[in-house]
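Is this the right way to post structure tokens for a design question? Let me know if I should format differently. Anyway, here goes:
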């Protein structure tokens, strides 16, 4: 009596690492695309698991207590690598199989949606029809005969909520159905009862499969033709590819005591029901060999047990799970309808409904924070800036000279851009007035005299985002005009060495201090080491955010001619050298008196200026945009050409950008200054700090020597600083004074504006 052939459906087993791969795929590859993506999975032969019982009286009794495990299709982190079809002929090092054929690779298709509404409204029937059509096409074209793995594709509909790390998914295992259905005649027979040679023949079957799998591609070892010859006691089993079905049937008809079976790796562990892959395998038989209407099917579940060499011949029957069933196939001509496909997976309540996985509760909070920050940045690439290189920003090492109001806002903006290496340099302590204006500090930081600002800022950054490499360096920056006593020489030298090492080991230097002279030494060091330097300065209601020009090569330090086309630095617009501006200040001069909203505006401009530089193909050498010059955009970066100086005014809410070239007499970045430090080192700096002045009775006499380097010095009775003398500013001032001396003012009753120049 025949009965409807029933199958054990697949159940998906999705490892957590797969969802991490889906998140990366969504962010970096798919973005807004909903095109189906190839993935892969695998299944193995079904096994029943032994249960341990405290009441079992013997080992055999304990072994008899087993639990059937649902047929599993495993989807893992490896699902994002090449599909099984692409891997044919390659070695899959990730599977780490002890022998071939244990796991059957299955190609799948991911349908990932952009919204939960799109996920819910997706046409599930159309997905099944699309994948089912590919199965039938593979059968009719003969591809499935050569590559049986094409018979078992799966589909997954998904939506990834990457803010909450919730993953909605629904797996489908499309199977072409038969109506009327195929049937089975008689009960399923355990393989040990089917063979004549007992356990020896069962072990021989495993050996034959191992040999077959070793000589087949991964996509071809899931289905085969099995020929059993009971009279051949040495090698009773021979396995062939599906291409050999017809010849095997012919030989069976001519042979004596032989049986030809359609075999497949069966993921089911049910005692009588075969697994889901048999459905499409019978469809293949229906269309590829319509003359075959009845056959034996070997549901092979023992691939993981290995060959007879690794299994004892007298092993218990329980170790073998394979069964043989007799099947009656409904001919294609008798089907009521073709191309009917089913296969959506049921959920835990056995309802046709999707599932949801929440990884937020199991993930490391630090990893969640990292993913969330990366999400905000990656979203820029989806529509607005697809060519942005976020890796460049993440790899940028930022040195912040100053950890006050500007330093705090700049650090937060850098962190939002994904910068992971931030170092603070400051010598101050957190005061009670700081927390309200400087977002990296709170009230507790100002107690007991205040924490060191640099260390407190770094600690605050790590609290905000634990993955940031934030360090604080407590350091007093030596400054021009601030004398260094003999007792302070060693500590000052050490401070210079520390600061220079920091500049050398970072990619960008932000000048964020509240005095002009404190920016001088970092400017010199930035020029010497050819670093990107971004300077921010505040007035009461005005600001400037600018970048310094970068020397094209180390040899350019000695170029004092007109070939220097660099952009200017913060000091290039000055005709006087920086000097002590901190002594003898009133209370309003001791504090940074600016409109409270100005610092975040200026800091944001500075960080966005850096982002524009980093995303430009020329980096720090990128030219500033010329307002009156047309550009075809070929040399522009992702955000265009970076401006040189951005000057803003809260009065009237105005802003404009200007471009200024490097000044040959600049007291900070000119070749004369940079080369003097390169050659003479700390001795040069010490003279600058002490602001050595030379008084002369006769002008225009070269008398100043720095470590053997003669410099023209012409100090009149008013006296000029060492930097002004070195760079030629002193001579420029004298020339100006001489010109003024040569002007003859008329007092003959004419207007005040009349004068005569001689």
């Amino acid at each position: 009596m025949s009965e409807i052939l029933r199958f054990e459906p697949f159940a998906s087993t999705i490892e957590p690492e797969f969802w991490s791969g889906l998140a990366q795929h969504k962010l970096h590859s798919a973005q807004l695309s909903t095109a189906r993506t190839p993935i892969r999975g695998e299944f193995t032969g079904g096994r029943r698991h032994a249960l341990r019982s405290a009441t079992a009286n013997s080992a055999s009794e304990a072994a008899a207590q087993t639990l059937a495990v649902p047929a599993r299709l495993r989807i893992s982190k490896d699902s994002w690598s090449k599909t099984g079809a692409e891997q044919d002929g390659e070695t899959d090092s990730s599977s780490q199989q002890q022998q071939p054929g244990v796991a059957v690779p299955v190609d799948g298709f991911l349908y990932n949606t952009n919204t939960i509404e799109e996920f819910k409204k997706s046409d599930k029937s159309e997905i099944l029809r699309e994948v089912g059509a590919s199965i039938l096409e593979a059968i009719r074209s003969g591809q499935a005969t050569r590559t049986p793995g094409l018979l078992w594709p799966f589909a997954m509909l998904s939506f990834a909520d990457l803010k909450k790390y919730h993953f909605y998914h629904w797996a489908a295992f499309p199977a072409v159905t038969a109506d009327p259905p195929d049937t089975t005649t008689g009960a399923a027979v355990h393989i040990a009862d089917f063979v004549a040679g007992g356990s020896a023949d069962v072990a021989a079957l495993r050996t034959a499969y191992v040999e077959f799998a070793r000589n087949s591609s991964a996509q071809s070892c899931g289905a085969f033709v099995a020929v059993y010859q009971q009279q051949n006691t040495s090698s009773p089993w021979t396995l062939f590819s599906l291409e050999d079905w017809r010849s095997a049937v012919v030989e069976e008809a001519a042979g004596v005591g032989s049986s030809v079976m359609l075999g497949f790796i069966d993921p089911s562990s049910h005692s009588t029901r075969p697994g889901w892959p048999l459905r499409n395998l019978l469809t293949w038989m229906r269309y590829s060999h319509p003359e075959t209407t009845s056959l034996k099917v070997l549901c092979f579940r023992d691939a993981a047990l290995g060959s007879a060499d690794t299994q004892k011949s007298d092993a218990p029957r329980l170790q073998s799970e394979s069964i043989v069933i007799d099947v009656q196939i409904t001919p294609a001509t008798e089907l009521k309808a073709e191309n009917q496909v089913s296969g959506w997976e049921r959920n835990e309540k056995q309802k046709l409904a999707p599932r949801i996985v929440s990884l937020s509760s199991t993930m490391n909070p630090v990893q969640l924070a990292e993913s969330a920050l990366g999400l905000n940045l990656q979203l820029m690439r989806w529509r607005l800036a697809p060519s942005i290189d976020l890796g460049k920003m993440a790899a940028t090492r930022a040195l912040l000279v100053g950890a006050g109001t500007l330093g705090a806002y700049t650090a937060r903006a850098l962190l939002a851009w994904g910068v992971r290496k931030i170092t603070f340099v400051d010598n101050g302590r957190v005061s009670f007035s700081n927390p309200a204006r400087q977002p990296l500090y709170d009230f507790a930081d100002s107690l007991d005299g205040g924490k060191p600002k640099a260390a407190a800022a770094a600690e605050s950054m790590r609290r905000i985002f634990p993955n940031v490499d934030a360090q604080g360096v407590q350091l007093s920056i030596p400054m021009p005009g601030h004398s260094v006593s003999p007792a302070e020489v060693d500590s000052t030298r050490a401070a210079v060495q520390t600061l220079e090492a920091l500049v050398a080991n970072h990619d960008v230097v932000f000048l964020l201090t509240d005095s002009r002279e404190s920016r001088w030494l970092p400017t010199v060091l930035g020029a010497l080491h050819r670093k990107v330097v971004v300077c921010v300065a505040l007035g009461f209601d005005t600001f400037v955010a600018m970048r310094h020009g970068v020397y094209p090569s180390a040899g350019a330090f000695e170029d004092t001619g007109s070939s220097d086309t660099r952009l200017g630095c913060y000091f290039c617009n000055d005709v006087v050298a920086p000097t002590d501006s901190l002594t003898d200040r009133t209370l309003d001069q001791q504090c940074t008196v600016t409109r409270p909203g100005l610092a975040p505006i200026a800091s944001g401009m500075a960080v966005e200026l850096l982002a524009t530089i980093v995303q430009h193909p020329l980096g720090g050498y990128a030219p500033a945009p010329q307002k009156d010059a047309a550009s075809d955009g070929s040399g522009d970066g992702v955000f265009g050409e970076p401006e040189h100086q951005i000057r803003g005014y809260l009065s009237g809410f105005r802003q404009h950008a200007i471009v200024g070239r490097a000044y040959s007499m600049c007291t900070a970045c000119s070749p004369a200054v940079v080369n003097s430090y390169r050659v003479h080192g700390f001795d040069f700096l010490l003279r600058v700090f002490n602001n050595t002045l030379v008084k002369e009775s006769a002008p225009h006499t070269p008398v100043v020597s720095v470590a053997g380097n003669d410099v023209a010095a012409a100090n009149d009775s008013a006296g000029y600083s060492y930097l002004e003398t070195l760079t030629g500013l002193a001579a420029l001032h004298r020339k100006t004074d001489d010109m003024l001396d040569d002007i003859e003012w008329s007092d003959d009753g004419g207007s005040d504006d009349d004068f005569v120049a001689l």
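Format looks fine. Someone answered above. Worth noting: The mean pLDDT is 85. The two ends are 129 Å apart (CA to CA).
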